[in-house]
Amino acid sequence: MKIELQKIIFIIIIVIFLLVIWDTQVIFYWKTLSVLLHESFHALIGFIFGGNDISISLSSKESGITYINNLSNYSIPFVVSAGYIGTILVGGYLLRVGFQFFRAQVYAFIAGNWILITGIFLLEPDNFFLKYSLALGLIFIIISMFSNLYSALLLIFLSITLLTYGIYDFSDILFKPEKTDAGILAKWLLEKGILSGNMKNISLNIGITWYIFNIFIIMYFMKFLFFGDKTGDFRIDRMIELVNNGNVPKDVANWFLEKGKDLDGNPIPLEKIDLMKRDKHE
Q1: pTM of the model
Q2: What count of other Cβ atoms lies within 10 Å of the Cβ of residue 34?
Q3: To 5 degrees, how large is the angle CA 122–CA 54–CA 36?
């Protein structure tokens, strides 16, 4: 199985760059986007479970709070877990999408609208973070309308930031778990009598459980990104369909085939490429 070494090196470079500037003002506003998305996942799940009067408050200390009224008791674990787990799920998926350049514009457009909608409907009015979300959302949308390449790079950078933030955020769970989302869930479990014991220890155990889950999620997406699809289904039919529908230029598809890959960058068995070439000549 061929390892996608170029992708690995590219991601490592971005991670190192982020870690070097992580605690500087240079990246403060970009990290704030991670906080906004984290809170938006709380809001989304809260809305799904029937919550109302939902709002988000962001702080200059790189933190946020989501306010949701009228939640049912047993929706609390899902709503509280949504921020941390949602960040990793979306980050992992966008990383994969970012390397599938023909989808990048669509997802960059969706991301831009998500940021806009979150800002307009959930952030406090006449607030700096509202203006920030509007500006950033528009930037995403504008880029998505004009460039596949820049949309892909934007998604890759965003996804790696979300994944890094999710892992980096574990330091809070490790040293002050009772003040995190894990602490909120631990308090609810204690109040309902579902668990008993020390709140700090329960919070830490919840946080570690989330962290382990997130590591598996990251590994899942990395497997497809770096090692290709192990199922044997390299989606040749999908490539043909995209070309026939005009979604992907024929010369682009041919370029991938010459490289021995499908449109997702997964290696195609040589016998399948030979078969396609024979069919083409016939």
Answers
A1: 0.80
A2: 22
A3: 45
